Amino acid sequence: MLTIQSNVSLKPYNTFGIDATARYLVEVENEEDIQTLLQLPNAHTSPMLILGGGSNLLLTQDFNGLAVKINLKGIQVVKEDQEHVWVRAGAGENWHGFVMHCVEKGWAGLENLSLIPGTVGAAPMQNIGAYGVEIKDTFDRLEAVQLATGEKHIFTNADCRFGYRDSVFKNEVKGQYIISSVQFKLAKQPTFQVSYGDIQTTLTQMGVKELSIRAVSEAVIKIRRSKLPDPAEIGNAGSFFKNPEIPASQYEALKIQYPAIPGYVINDTTVKVPAGWLIEQNGWKGKRFGSIGVHTRQALVLVNYGGGKGADIQQLAYKIQNSVEEQFGIRLHTEVNFV
To answer: Which residues does UniProt mark as catalytic (predicted)?
Structure first.
């Protein structure tokens, strides 16, 4: 039976640690709970906020609606052949925990995505990615319940329309579904992606002689821990901004003015520029404004040192966006969703 709580602090439900209040909160443990939820009188009239791990969320004010915490658990092998295994996980499974399960089993494809905060259900919404790998590379399908009808729908890889930190769930069908489970197609024989970032260097420092799924995962974890603050210690949502993709002609022009500007060629016409570098050039790295600020080791990360307001972090983000655009002619876009 569902328990509806009133006037609940959402501080434990978001990694920024913002102390905003939800008018109502309910936690769903299974698909039956979702159906019961949709029968509630205010399910279709009140605003609804779907909560996974709360790691991609900035609460800028109290939420005058129904917050729904997704707790659906379970990991199972759906099928397998000589080369691949198809694994389904409940939307409420912790993402890093799921990745570690796959690493332990020797299933390859997700090891570069180790230690990313959040839940399995939220991962395809954002098409999370790191170190040359994105969810879309191993994603097979997901199941989701349509809020308006209660019907279950299957979304294939193509249906999700994955883009850079983007999917159909952030656009055409935003707010229309609750994802209940996600299925991945993982490899029994790994193809390692170690050329991106500091992975190869870190593997060498670790003394790794022979590549393995576990070694790559451990290298990624080591890198992330060295660069990114632990939300349990300092409130944050990881990378706050996307790395902008700009026309190659614009990049070449910037290169003349700023010879040190880094860039990663996407194709003949597009170059990706590290947002952290752009922000750091504007002097934001390590800046603190009372209880909020920009992290000392990674300019991409905005932080709440304790007691910070979401609206203040939002305003800081706007100032950073404006300063980068004024200097470089590049408008940064956020990865984090504002509520």
So the answer is: 165, 239, 335
